[in-house]
Structure formats: structure tokens, C-alpha cells
Amino acid sequence: MEQQDFKDIYEQYKQQGEQQAKMESTHESNDGREEFVAVKKNDDGDIIAFKTNTGRELDYITALNEAKAGKIAHIDVFHKYGRDIIRSEPDGIKDNNLDQLPEF
Question: Which residues pair with 76 in a beta bridge?
């Protein structure tokens, strides 16, 4: 098997995963939880605030606490670099990654 075959097979696998993730995300219920729809970044490009689908604007710490409490849909909190960090659920859809959201 040639190396190119490996790349082609992997690309097909990745595309199928992205298509499946998009289908699943359109059918998921948020159980009334808010979602992040926009972000505010500082001059270094770091996310410092979030806007929800209800129009609320949350500073990073408030958003972190609400995410930890399970009040925000499709968000994970993990511990890295000595602190808790907010990230979107890894679902294979690049468009809904926090860094890809529009700025407000």
C-alpha cells in the first residue's frame, strides 16, 4: 500500500466524521441551556468574554463557573497550565470551535 493511500483513507475517515458530527449536532437538544455564539478577544487574541444565544455577555470567570455548573451547552472545562480552561466539546466541527466564533 502506498503512502498516498494512507492519506486518502484518513481524509475519507475525517470527512465522514465531520459529516456525522454535523448531523448529530443539529439533532441535539440543549435542555434549555445557553450556548456561546460570539467571543471577545484581547490584543493578544486570547478569549476574554463570551456572548450567549440569549444575548448575555459573560466575562471569562463567570463563563467558566457557569460551564462548570453545566449551564452552558457544548462546552468542556479542563485543567491545564495550572488553571481551568474553557473549550468547545471536541466534535470534529471546526466552525463551532470557540476561536472560530464571531467577535462581539
Answer: 87
